[in-house]
Amino acid sequence: MKITVVGTGYVGLVTGACFAEIGNHVVCLDRDQERIDALQNGHLPIHEPGLLDIVLRNAHSGRLLFTSDVNLAVAHGRVQFIAVGTPAGEDGSADLQHVLAAAQAIAERMQEDRLIVNKSTVPVGTADRVRETMAAVLRARGQPASVCVVSNPEFLKEGSAVQDFVRPDRVVVGADDEQAAQSMRQLYAPFMRNRDRLIVMDVRSAEFTKYAANAMLATRISFMNELALLAEKLGADIEQVRTGMGTDPRIGTHFLYAGTGYGGSCFPKDVKALVHTAREAGQELSILQAVQAVNDRQKQVLVDKIVARFGSDLQGRRFALWGLAFKPDTDDMREAPSLTIIEQLLARGAEIAAYDPVALAQARLVLGERPGLHLVGQADAALEGADALVIVTEWKEFRSPDFAHLAATLRQPVVFDGRNLFEPADMQALGLEYHAIGRGAPL
Ligand code: NAD
Question: Which residues constitute the catalytic centre (predicted)?
Answer without folding.
Answer: 266
